[in-house]
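[retry 2/3] ATP-binding protein: previous attempt timed out, resubmitting with same input.
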Amino acid sequence: MIADLDYGLLPDESEDHFLGLEQAQLVGTDTLLTTRDNIEAVIEAKAMMCVYGPAGSGKTMSVNSALRHLAPDITHRLELRAGPTPRDIRHGLFQALGLPGEPPARPIEFDTLLKEALAEEFRVLVCDEAQWMKKTGFEFWRHLWDDKRTNIAVIFAGGDGCYKVLRREPMLASRIFIWQEFTRMSKDEVRATIPAFHPVWTDVDTALIDAIDKQAAHGSFRNWANITTHILSGMKKLNLRQVDEDLVRWVYSKIGGM
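[retry 2/3] ATP-binding protein: success.
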């Protein structure tokens, strides 16, 4: 059975934020700008890159944003789940590249088809949720990238698992052009970012933002999006016009420990 994969072109910007949070803004943080610079360098070098870090730290959002700016029409994205095998990756690439006909039954024929397609024009391939891959999956990507005929840049984005697998294997690690680690936002980054992230936080007291981050959000973009969604729901339900401590306690009753 083929592992579950999402594939295709870059998603719409409205899908970047967790839960499709309306009015959420992409904030030009240092990390976002660094990601854009790094991906630009990877594209120019036709190289491979590993973006890694904890869940909810903005990896996918930053990579997608950079590629919309740098290579929107030549990017093909795969999101892997459930321990994908090389066979799964082959089929995902077949779909992502929009290749005609039926996928070849034999791996050698399949690889030849993919290499021929990837030699036609330059493409950026993004492997999201790469922490699910084992050594054999990364080796397959290396096999494609190493081939002299293919014309690609490859970006792996995932948790610490993908970093550990790649670093354990010198043959793989030596081919990674750029390593970029994502971390959760610091207290100062939260103070600078969250009021610009969504209008609901624009006039909220800094002390309250600090408390929410310490108690529930923990520097995670995803947690802040979740909390913001509940805040907006609570304001509508309770007919409030601003965020206060009572509303925050109401949100905490919904989200439990984070």
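[retry 2/3] ATP-binding protein: The longest strand covers residues 152-158.
[retry 2/3] clearing retry counter.
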